[in-house]
Amino acid sequence: MTTSTQEKIPVTVLTGYLGAGKTTLLNRILSEPHGKKFAVIVNEFGEIGIDNELVVNADEEVFEMNNGCICCTVRGDLVRIIDGLMRRKGKFDAIIVETTGLADPAPVAQTFFMDEQVGAKTKLDAVVTVADAKWLHHRLKDAPEAKNQIAFADVILINKTDLVEGEELREVEARIRAINPYARLHCTERAQVDIAEVVGRNAFDLDRILEVEPSFLEAEEEHDHHDDHDHDHDHGHEYHHRHGLKHYHDEEMQSVSLRTANPLNPDKFFPWVQDLVANEGPNILRCKGILSFKDDPERFVFQGVHMILDGDHQRPWGADEKRESRIIFIGRNLPEEKIRQGFDSCIA
Amino acid sequence: MYRVGHLNELQGTLLSLADRVRPVNAGSPVVGVHFFTATPVFVLGEEALLFADEGGGKRVAVHAGGILASAADGKCIVTGGDDGTLVVTEESGEHRVLASDDKKRWVDQVALGPDGAVAWSAGKTAHVLNKKGERRSYDAPSTVAGLAFAPKGFRLAIAHYNGATLWFPNAVEVKPEMLTWKGSHLSVAFSPDGKFLVTTMQEPTLHGWRLADGQHMRMSGYSARVRSLGWTAGGEFLATAGSEQLILWPFDGKDGPMGRQPRILARSEARVAVVACHPRQPVVAVGYADGALVLVRIEDGAMIEVRKKGGAPVSALGWDAAGQMLGFGTEAAEAGALAV
């Protein structure tokens, strides 16, 4: 018996390469008249002042867990800081973690899965990545960190759009989509975005795993690009797939999306997926899925970060709902054909 | 053959002292319990110490923010806060800032040593004020996660990533000794005879070193990170939380727990959150995540109930020096004191 889900403090992780506009976004979130109080964890080397009552400096100490899993790294400083912040529970509604420009988001995310105390008191809300419209495509070539940040994101802001022409912007969008087809994209100037698009996303909540991405998996598989989001807020505009958008294939980082209408055999699926993340875990940044098992009236949902998998039965399939299993893996040099064959062999 | 009492089975028949507990409304989650003679002092999660004598409570504000760590020796209580200060409070309630971090970093570890020496840390730096009032500092290889003074000699153990460092603050010419073991080491404790050093780790294990020869010990099997431990009177056992029972590692021989099984008592469905060893008797106060609190006699595992289960997890426990009074607090600001 610990704190229930409702009482868990949501944590938003802000990433983005140096100079993309993370701190601008952070200050915007803090200064909007939303009535929310945030505790902010910033990195030690941040230069720009943060105007907020609760600001904690972190030193991004990443270490490996002693569980034989080489990609199982956590942020030790976050474990301590969140423990300390919880003493002031009631003084803030949410936590924002700003990482350094060179940080890999995985250890931050894994901290919430690997430390029971942190997981009992807080929940990861979303990884938000700020990308520089002008410079991102260069960084994708020379900075592996920048690519990780895009691949890992639930929400991506293409910022500084005023510095690029339309064609260049579409190029950046296409480059991002080649790496991460399911993140929510927003084009912004000076990080102007409705903060509801950035905080309170519940992107890691198993119950909402795919609700938050209504076009989940559609993009890549069908190449069926249509507007399926309302364009109803005044600043920032949501990304829409457009006809004529270039299709890129990133040589290194890709997503593999799988789907089948045939029910899966859980006795085949679980060993397969566990074996897959055990072997490919270092290369798999994130995965998400909704599964339909044979003779099982309930949807099974799961997500993962590298080798860590988290899954549960979610709710019964609706009477008029298409019973279909869908999974996406985002990662580096993924053996797509092997993954597809493995998935197919899980069909009951 | 140990007698293992199952708390939930025995609850109905358990001898209870619950009606003898003097309740205290702490008003804020309790993170520590100390005593000035017979006066329990509750360290609150934010700002204040609550002196809870029979006549009523006295709240003493000592920090401008959260209180992250505390230690006491009967003469004073030292606290570290997220306001970047180290504060010492006396029995009268008088208090003063002993040190401030120049970058306003959190003072999140404190320890009291022999002769009134005090140690604290902010970030990677551990500091000591010795009895002459001289300040010494040591930069650990990574953030300091635990501090403990050796029972004899003026020596400080500092826990950090990949091990612990033993530092003689007064001996500037002696190079600190690093005990290495991969991983994140959190709290640290010397055995009362000074022969062993034990750390809790990020994983649900303890690590230990026999200081004479650096022999490693690994104590595992917990269901969660161990967040509370203490030595029983005489140092016979190391009592630990982190499991659905009280785990007692034997430290009576020269090899400590090496090759031996722990004694397991006070089993429950809820996890042990906090333990506090009686200062004189082989008795341990055990607080659970379901709010239950019992006294356990190590000899036969007999238990006495102090608080029924229900409500918030027990978050702090402490005995007075004579072992006549037990104070407790919970995450939900409930607190109490029991004269045993």
Describe the secondary structure blueprint for this structure.
The complex is a heterodimer of chains A (348) and B (340).
Chain A: E1 9-16, H1 22-31, E2 38-43, E3 54-58, E4 62-64, E5 73-75, H2 76-85, E6 94-98, H3 105-114, H4 116-121, E7 122-132, H5 136-142, H6 144-152, E8 155-159, H7 166-179, E9 184-187, H8 218-222, E10 237-238, E11 253-260, H9 266-280, E12 284-292, E13 298-305, E14 308-316, E15 325-332, H10 336-344
Parallel strand pairs in A: 1-6, 1-7, 2-3, 2-6, 7-8, 8-9
Antiparallel strand pairs in A: 4-5, 9-10, 11-15, 12-13, 12-15, 13-14
Helix pairs in contact in A: 5-6
Chain B: H1 7-10, E1 15-16, E2 22-25, E3 30-36, E4 39-44, E5 46-53, E6 56-72, E7 76-81, E8 85-90, E9 95-100, E10 109-112, E11 118-122, E12 125-129, E13 135-139, E14 146-149, E15 156-167, E16 177-190, E17 196-201, E18 206-210, E19 215-219, E20 229-231, E21 237-240, E22 246-250, E23 263-265, E24 272-277, E25 283-288, E26 293-297, E27 303-307, E28 314-319, E29 325-330, E30 334-339
Parallel strand pairs in B: 1-27
Antiparallel strand pairs in B: 2-30, 3-4, 4-5, 5-6, 6-7, 7-8, 8-9, 10-11, 11-12, 12-13, 14-15, 15-16, 16-17, 17-18, 18-19, 20-21, 21-22, 22-23, 24-25, 25-26, 26-27, 28-29, 29-30
Essential attributes:
heterodimer, A: 348 residues, alpha/beta, Rossmann fold, Hypothetical Protein Yjia, Chain: A,domain 2, 2 domains, 8-stranded mixed sheet, 5-stranded antiparallel sheet, 27% helix, disordered N terminus, B: 340 residues, mainly beta, 7-stranded antiparallel sheet, 6-stranded antiparallel sheet, 1 helix, globular
Overview of the structural elements:
The complex is a heterodimer of chains A (about 350) and B (about 350). The longest helix of chain A is centred in the C-terminal third of the chain and has 15 residues, at about 265-280. Chain A has helices at about 20-30, 75-85, 105-115, 115-120, 135-140, 145-150, 165-180, 220, 265-280, 335-345; strands spanning about 10-15, 40-45, 55-60, 60-65, 75, 95-100, 120-130, 155-160, 185, 235-240, 255-260, 285-290, 300-305, 310-315, 325-330. Chain A folds into two domains: about 5-210, 3-Layer(aba) Sandwich (Rossmann fold), CATH 3.40.50.300; about 255-345, Hypothetical Protein Yjia, Chain: A,domain 2 (2-Layer Sandwich), CATH 3.30.1220. With about 350 residues, chain A is of the alpha/beta class. In chain A, the strands form three sheets. Chain A has an eight-stranded mixed β-sheet, with helices on both faces. A five-stranded antiparallel β-sheet of chain A has the order 11-15-12-13-14, sandwiched between helices. In chain A, about 45% of the residues are buried. The model of chain A is unreliable at about 1-5 and about 210-245 (pLDDT under 50). Chain B has about 350 residues and is mostly beta strands. Helix content of chain B is about 0%, strand content about 55%. Chain B is built from one helix and 30 strands. Chain B has one helix at about 5-10, and strands at about 15, 20-25, 30-35, 40-45, 45-55, 55-70, 75-80, 85-90, 95-100, 110, 120, 125-130, 135-140, 145-150, 155-165, 175-190, 195-200, 205-210, 215-220, 230, 235-240, 245-250, 265, 270-275, 285-290, 295, 305, 315-320, 325-330, 335-340. The longest helix of chain B has 4 residues, at about 5-10. Chain B is globular and about 60 Å long. Mean pLDDT of chain B is about 95; it is low at about 1-5 and about 5-10. Classes of the chains: A alpha/beta (about 350), B mainly beta (about 350). The interface between A and B is medium-sized, with 27 and 34 residues.
